[in-house]
Structures are given as C-alpha cells and as structure tokens.
Amino acid sequence: MNPTLKNTLMAQWFATEQALHRVFRHDARLRLSILQAPDRMILTALDLLGAVAVGERIWLPMGETTTSLTNVLYYLSLVAVLKVPETSALPRVGAPELENPLRMVVPTESDVPASTAPVLRDGSNVLEVRNLQTYFGLDEGTVRAVDGVSFDIKRDSVLGIVGESGCGKSVLARSIMSIVQPPGYIPSGEIHFTRPVNGVMKSDDLVQLDPDGEEMRSIRGGEITMVFQEPMVSFSPVYTVGNQIMEAVILHQKVSKAEARNRTIEMLGLVGIPNPERRIDEYPFNLSGGMRQRAMIAMALSSNPKLLIADEPTTALDVTTQAQILDLMVQLQEEFGMAMILITHNLGVVAQMAKEVAVMYLGKIVEHTDVGTLFDNPQHPYTQELLRSIPRLSRTKQTERLTAIKGSVPPPYSRPTGCAFHPRCPQVMAGVCEVIEPEPIQISDAQLVSCLLHSDDAKQRAEAVNAAAGPDISGEDEE
After folding, report:
1. What does the DSSP assignment read for 108-176?
2. Which stretches of 70-123 are assigned E, i.e. beta strand?
3. pLDDT tens track for 12-53
4. Global pTM?
C-alpha cells in the first residue's frame, strides 16, 4: 500500500474521531483496527454520521448502501458502536465547507502525489526527526504517546533520552524502527535517515516506507538496530542464541551459513562473552542476565549499523554488570563509529555516555541541550526536579528523605490542558500554565526549552492575572 495514502487515511480518521466525540460526547466508543486485506480500493467516500455497526456489516443511514466492513477501506476498517439519536437532530460541527461535516473523503492512489526522487543530504546528521506523532486509538480515548517530537542525531554522536516511565521514550524508539503495532499509528511527521549508498548520501523518510516492505526491512536490523529492555523476552526461548544472531547476519549480509556462524562467534567474543564457540549453541535461559544482554548487543552490532537504539540496556542488571555493559557500549560505539540513541531513567548513565540530552514528558521533548548544560544550567522545571531527585553523597543526615517529584505522570488519554507538567510544577503560573500550551524556545545556541517561564507574553499574562486577583486579604501575615 502507498504509505502516503495510509498516513493520510490515519490523519483523516483522527480528525473524524475528534468530531464524533464532540457530537456524541461519552456515547461514542470508537476503535480503529488495521486489516491486511483487502488489496484494492472499494469506496472513495464513507459517511460516518450515524453509522451503526451490526455484526460484520455497517449501516449508513445517509443514503449509502450496506457494505461489508472488510471492504470499507483499502487498508483500514472503522468499527463504530454509537448510541445514535435521530440524524436530523444532530448538530452541525466541523469544517463548514463540507456538506456533511463528518464525511471522511478517502483519497484514491491518483490523489496522492507521485513519489519524488530520494533526497540527497550532506550526511552530517544520520537521523532527522521532524514533528513526529504516534497515537493509539483506545476505547478510553486517543493516546498521544509521541506528540510533535523533533531532534537531530549527528554521526558518531550519542543522544540520551530521559524521562519517567510513560513519557513516550520507548514508543519513540519503536516509531523510528517502524514496529509500532495496531492500534498505534503515525498520523504525521518525518523521520529522515541518511546513509551512503554507492558513494552518494541518500536520505529516506522512514514514515513513508512500508513497514513490511523490502527497503524498510533492509534498514531495520541492518542499518538501524535496537537493543531492547529485557533480552529474556526479546530472544526466543526455543532457538539457540547463535541461531538467532546468525539469522540476522544471513538476512542483512547475504553470506553463507558457515560465514554467518563465524561472524556470530566473532561478535560474541567482541562483546566479552567467554568461550563463544560453546556459547553460540546455548539457549537464552542458559545464560545469565549480563550475558543475555551482551548477546543482544552482539546481535544489534552484527550488521555494522549506522544507528543503534539502546532502550534501557542495563535494566534488571546488578551495578557491576551495568558498569561493564556501559563501558562495552562506549567502546563499541567508538570502534564502529555509529550514532546511538540511549534511552534511560538514569541521569548518571547519561552523564557518562551521552553528548546531547533530550528530556521527554508526556510525549513531548521539554528540554534539549548538551549534557554539560543540562547538569550545570537546567531551564525546565521538570529537568530541575529530575536532577533534584538524584541521591547525593553530600547528604549529612541519613534520615533526610530523598527529594521526589510530587504526583505522577497523568494517564496519556487524560492529558492536562495547557502545559502538561503544570499540575506537578513548583513554579506554575496560575491562570497561564493551565491554559497556554508552551512552544519550544531557543534559550541559547545549544539549549531548547518548552516552558512558559521563558515566554515574555506568558509572564505579562501572569502579571495581569495576579493584578486582577488583587492583594491577599486572608488577614494572616506571613512571618
């Protein structure tokens, strides 16, 4: 399927879903499911107003014919369970230029612009992400797991991505790898991956590539690889470690089985596994946690990738093994000359390995700067609170409680209005932060912050709100 067509359908479904929620409020339960069939366009327009799902068929009371759900769209199927009032009594919402504001016009292949020639770039950045959005359509609402993320990664550089659990770090990594599973989808955004091809720097937008297509499959696991959080889950328990690494080598390097085995033994030895000639024939459950993680790194590096994504590579490892794994990754990153995205909760790991840091909160990057500036001069309140929560050796009282960020990350389908961090922020501006959503502000050449504390307009509004509220008349004087 044309990826541009698929993304257009996703974006139009998201807009339609929002319109339906405005009409039916809590009476609408919407679900989006991906179908592998059919393989041709059946309808060019679908009227969702007052649609009622009946078994495997859908009734469209606005003059459309009864149509099998499996033939509604080229690659998508919409399943709606609605409590429908009289269609004539429904309010008019949405775009006024449409005769039916909830009509979703599905473009045909001819409506999609023809694919252009590959973009040629200078190659200074191996990855450029622009306004990436990754959403999940759930019964509770739409989860904006990644919401407008933009960043660059230079060659031979390490970008650390930090934040609490539930901030969208792993979903961002999976979006780059094109392994987001339904009901997840990417309504908009660009992921430009640049690498040399036949002596020329070629750039592809990974969002536009078919996730199951030959080109994306050659990039995934070959030129972009990933170390997952838990290798015991990532490795199949019914195949040997060597068998699984050899499969990746044969797929991406087109070598014989004997050559793949030799390459696998070489990689297992390179990552510090003793007796690789014997370990290659062992199953994942025969290895310790540290060895499994080393084997996962060996698989990721077996194809000499241009970009390695390490998603919390030291999870569930003891402190000594963590240090060994981190030292190994630093050594291999310098040896292979690859770029790396390091996802972690541990700011100490970031200080040791990363050159640049992006702090994520609820799907957005709230601060992006170099690692030195992050620790010396953090500007976003969330970053400041993360740094305060780090245990310090200078504490004199062992009975003193560790600093913690108040509250917790809100449910992603129930995001706060305005700044997403304002319910937990110690520097919140009343009447401003809960209303205005902050935009990225360039504090310096190396520091980007999304916070209203650095917006002159927001400060003026806060002063106006405080002036309108008047002086404190509680009658209690502060001592």
Report:
1. -GGGSPPPPPPBP--SSEEEEEEEEEEEEEETTEEEEEEEEEEEEEETT-EEEEE--TTSSHHHHHHHH
2. 76-82, 103-105
3. 555 555 544 444 333 333 333 333 333 322 222 333 333 333
4. 0.72
